[in-house]
C-alpha cells in the first residue's frame, strides 16, 4: 500500500532524523550518553515553552497522562478546580478531576467558540479556585484560546494555579510560560512536536512545585512528580522507573529540530500553512467552524458544503492519498479535521490541496479545478 499523507491532528508525520534517533541502541537509563541526552532534552523542552525557572518532567505516557499529572499534583479531594472547556479535551479534565473527588466548575463554550475572557475574570472574582485549566488548542474544535489575555486575568489571582493543556500547540504556537505566569504546561510528543507518541512532557513553575509539597501525600505513586524530581534535576542520579530510553532519544532530536528551525520561524510557518489551507478550502466552498480570530494554526475544523457526505469524502480522500480525521461528538458528520502541524512541509500542503480537489471532482462537485490550490499558493508563495 502506498504511504498516505497523515494530515490528522496527531500522530503527525515524523522526520527521518527523529526515526533514526528512535532506532539507536537501547541502552541503560544510566548510560552516560543517555544521561547527557536526557539533560539536553529537559533543557530544550524549557526553551520551547520559554521558561528559565520552570522544572521540566519527561515521563513515559501520553498527553492524557500529562493532564492527570497536572491535576493530581496541584489539587486534592475537596479542592476547587475551574475548567475552561472549548471542547472534548477541556471536558476530559472534568472527568479526570471528578475521579479524585475534586470539586469542579466548568465554563464551557459552544463548540467552535471560546469562553469570553471577561466571564473567566468574573468567575474568579466570585469564588476562590485552587487551580484553573485552559486548553491552548482544543483539537476537537480547532479553536485556540487567547492564552496571553487569559493569563493577564489569572495573574490577579495568586492562589489559583494556571494549568495549560498545550498538547496540540507546543512547538507550533507561541507559549511564553514565564511571561504569562503559567504554572503547569504540558505537551505530548505526537502533535506539533512531531515525535512518535509515548511521552508526556511537562514543566512546573516554582509555585506549582510548592503546591505539590503543600498537598502532602497524594493518591498516585507513578504520577507523583516528587518521585520523579531528583531524576529530572539530576538525570543519571538514580532510579525511579525505567525511562523510555529510545523515546528520549527521539524527543531529543525532535526538540533539536524545532530549535534549529527557530521558534519564531516555526510559529510563522504554522500560521502560513494554516492561512493557506483556510484560503484554499474557503475558495472551494468549505466553511470553517471557528471564526478567524480564534482559529488554531495547528488544526482546522472544516465544514462540508452541501452535497458532500462526510464518510464517502474521507474514504475517497484516503484512497487518493490523504488521511484526515472525523468530527468529534456533536460535530461528527458535519466536518472533517485537518492537521497541519509539526514537520510537514509546503510540498505537503500543496499536495493535500491538490488531492482534495481531485476528490471533489470525483463527486461531481461544482468548482473550478485549481482554484483552491491557487488561493493557497497566493499565501504560501507571496506572503
Ligand atoms: C491529543 C490531545 C490530548 C491527549 O493526548 P494523548 O497523547 O492522545 O493522550 C490532550 N489534550 C489535547 C489538547 C490534545 O490535542
Question: Any key phrases for this structure?
Answer:
7-stranded mixed beta sheet, 43% helix, 16% strand, alpha/beta
Q: Can you give a write-up of this model?
A:
There is one protein chain. With 383 residues, the protein is an alpha/beta fold. It has helices spanning 16-22, 32-48, 63-72, 88-99, 117-126, 147-154, 177-180, 206-214, 225-233, 245-261, 263-283, 310-320, 346-361, 371-382, and strands at residues 5-6, 55-60, 80-85, 103-108, 131-135, 137-138, 143-144, 161-165, 184-187, 199-204, 287-288, 299-303, 322-323, 325-326, 335-339. A seven-stranded mixed beta sheet has the order 2-10-9-8-5-3-4, with helices on both faces. Helix 2 crosses helix 10, helix 12 (310-320) packs across helix 13 (346-361) and helix 13 (346-361) packs antiparallel against helix 14 (371-382). The longest helix has 21 residues, at 263-283. The protein is globular, with a radius of gyration of 21 Å. The protein starts with a strand and ends with a helix. The model has no long low-confidence stretch (mean pLDDT 97). The protein binds pyridoxal-5'-phosphate. Pyridoxal-5'-phosphate is lined by residues 10, 62-64, 89, 135, 138-139, 165, 167-168, 188, 191, 197.
Amino acid at each position: 500500500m502506498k504511504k498516505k499523507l497523515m494530515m490528522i491532528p496527531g500522530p503527525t508525520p515524523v522526520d527521518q532524523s527523529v526515526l533514526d534517533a528512535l532506532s539507536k541502541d537501547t541502552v541503560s537509563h544510566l548510560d552516560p550518553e543517555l544521561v547527557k541526552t536526557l539533560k539536553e532534552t529537559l533543557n530544550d523542552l524549557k526553551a520551547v515553552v520559554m521558561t528559565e525557572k520552570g522544572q521540566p518532567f519527561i515521563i513515559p505516557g501520553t498527553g492524557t497522562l500529562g493532564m492527570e499529572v497536572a491535576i493530581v499534583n496541584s489539587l486534592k479531594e475537596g479542592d476547587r478546580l475551574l475548567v475552561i472547556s472549548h471542547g472534548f479535551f477541556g471536558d476530559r479534565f472534568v472527568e479526570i478531576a471528578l475521579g479524585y473527588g475534586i470539586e469542579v466548575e466548568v465554563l464551557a463554550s459552544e463548540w467552535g467558540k471560546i469562553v469570553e475572557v471577561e466571564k473567566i475574570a468574573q468567575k474568579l472574582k466570585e469564588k476562590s479556585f485552587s487551580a484553573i485549566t485552559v486548553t491552548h488548542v482544543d483539537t476537537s474544535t480547532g479553536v485556540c484560546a487567547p492564552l496571553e489575555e487569559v493569563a493577564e486575568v489569572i495573574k490577579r489571582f495568586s492562589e489559583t494555579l494556571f494549568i495549560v493543556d498545550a498538547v496540540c500547540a507546543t512547538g507550533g504556537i507561541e507559549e511564553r510560560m514565564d511571561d504569562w505566569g503559567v504554572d503547569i504546561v504540558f505537551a505530548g510528543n505526537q502533535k506539533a512536536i512531531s515525535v512518535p507518541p509515548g511521552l508526556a512532557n511537562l514543566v512546573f513553575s516554582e509555585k506549582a512545585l510548592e503546591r505539590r509539597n503543600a498537598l502532602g501525600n497524594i493518591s498516585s505513586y507513578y504520577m507523583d512528580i516528587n518521585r520523579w524530581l531528583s531524576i529530572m534535576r539530576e538525570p543519571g542520579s538514580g532510579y525511579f522507573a525505567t525511562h523510555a530510553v529510545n523515546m528520549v532519544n527521539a524527543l531529543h532530536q525532535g526538540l533539536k529540530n524545532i530549535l534549529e528551525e527557530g521558534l519564531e520561524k516555526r510559529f510563522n510557518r504554522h500560521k502560513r500553512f494554516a492561512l493557506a489551507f483556510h484560503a484554499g478550502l474557503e475558495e472551494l466552498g468549505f466553511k470553517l467552524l471557528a471564526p478567524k480570530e480564534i482559529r488554531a494554526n495547528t488544526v482546522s475544523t472544516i465544514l462540508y458544503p452541501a452535497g458532500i457526505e462526510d464518510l464517502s469524502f474521507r474514504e475517497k480522500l484516503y484512497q487518493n492519498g490523504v488521511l484526515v480525521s472525523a468530527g468529534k461528538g456533536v460535530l461528527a458528520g458535519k466536518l472533517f479535521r485537518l492537521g497541519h502541524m509539526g514537520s510537514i512541509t509546503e510540498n505537503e500542503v500543496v499536495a493535500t490541496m491538490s488531492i482534495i480537489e481531485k476528490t471533489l471532482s470525483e463527486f461531481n462537485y461544482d468548482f473550478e479545478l485549481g482554484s483552491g490550490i491557487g488561493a493557497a499558493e497566493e499565501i504560501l508563495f507571496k506572503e
